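Quick board copy: two proteins, each given as sequence then tokens.
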Amino acid sequence: MIINTGNRTDIPAFYSRWFMNRIRAGYVMVRNPYAPQNITKYPLVPDVIDILCFGTKNPEPMLKHLSELTAYHQFWSVTITPYDKDIEPHVPDKTKVIDSFCKLSSVVGIKSVSWRYDPVFLNERYDIDFHIRAFSSMCTKFEGNTDNCVVSFIDLYEKTKRNFHGIREVSHNEQEFLIEKFVEIAAKHGIKVITCCEDPKLAFLGADVSGCMNKIILERACGFSLDIPQSSLSRLMTREGCNCLIGNDIGAYNTCGHGCLYCYANYDSKTVAANIKKHDPESPLLIGRPGPEDIIRDARIEVYRDLQIKWL
């Protein structure tokens, strides 16, 4: 079973105490975001979890807990951008986040970490020249601590346009120019550029367009092959045109406190604040507690590991 924590919120940054309580309890409950009365109960034990996948902008609160997670295979996707507080008002100082990333990499290993430079957008302050300078500087700091960087361009969801006035998409020509430069810069530091849900034709510029959390990447982090039935692949690949295995997410939308203007997982700041007040670190649910009207079902347990084939 693959457990993902990072597509709906940032559990390591804001809910590490809750997450470790769930690890110690051996299970977690998750509301269906589209049918809230339906709750799925997932086991959280090493015997059935092939890999824990984390997505965060700040891994620091989880570093002290890593010794408790050694029985689990892990994959960490850490988003670190060069944007300032005008765009990411509550993300910690980026120098500290980079330091935390490097500490994380030293513990879990370079095959289990990925740096995300995402999303890329353009405006008067954050123009093409800014991105090239910033990306080059950051690659220098990441050298030896990661061998890949995931790059994705901003998608203008309705909530993004509502919360981030004046933002525009990056044109195809601008995307090609930036990817070409990024690939050239990253290669000098032993880093491969991976695109996430972008035009496959960017491959001709040297980018890996196969996805940021696909089966091969997770196998590399695990150290063994994952034998996933086709029926399960369709359930785990929840985004059209994406090869990444992002199903079984235990997070909840409208709960991330970073306040990034481009966020697609939060509706607005008032909704987030209201949900955070309902958070109980002792609850099996991230937000609130199960009620008598809820329907709780056990998740289907599928163990995918194939220990006969070692991944190099």
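And the next:
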Amino acid sequence: MSGRNARRGELGEFLKARRAELGPHQVGLPDTGAVRRVPGLRREEVAQLAAISTDYYTRLEQGRIPASASVLGSLASVLRLDDDQRDYLSELAGKEAARPRRRTRQRVRPSLRRVLDDLRFTPAFVLGRSMDILAWNPLAAALVTDFGQLPANHRNYVRLLFTDPAMRRLYADWETVAHTSVALLRREAARYPDDARLVELVGELSVRDTEFRRWWAAHHVASQRIGTKTLHHPVVGDLDLDWDTLTCATDPDQQLVTWTAEPESPTHERLRILASWAAEHRQPAEERGGRPRH
């Protein structure tokens, strides 16, 4: 057996050993209680979670084909590999760098923060890499959710869509919004394939949500900059909003998203009512991604 084939065989055995250590309940899959012929996860379950075909994973585990860096990253997340195990997997596959890099945490640009502060009747927030929510104004918090009450690492637009039940009720067409967000995230993954934050997010949502897992596996991509949304808001009722995305010239990874309505329309009036409501429930600036007020 050649050295290359030997490494592929060892890679397959390594994957087999790691999946044997995980039960369905550990990765968010239902455990029917039926007796399993082999310990741990089945091949088809690993393939499903990694968004690859069972046939592809079977051939990989049998040492019959090489693995791409992206597939290795997905499998490492599904199998809960630590850094040493990721490095070992990379060495077996002959890849130089399978371990995702930790990118510096983004800070919202001061110019974008000033724009947020000045938008009283327009819901707006700043999106960063992986669609993280970096900052927002009071009306955006009143419209969508109180971002300041969330842990910083949970302030992600896609994560909220799939993990917060209130978001499913808020959007009149949640499925289209969520599907599009996955396509946008897939485009982001192509730009930053080694971003640890993005790998972890995809891994978490793939385990937690069957729809995310199915849409991610479809490999659809999108790059929408404008659009319309209808919301069912619990305070002011139905809202028909146009949204626009403005990219920061000095940092293309930061985008200002604004939601507006036609002047004198029912939605325009309801936004003003919501702004008044938000003013009565306003949080300190540092709790909404802004500057502390002195």
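Board note added afterward: The chain has 13 helices and five strands.
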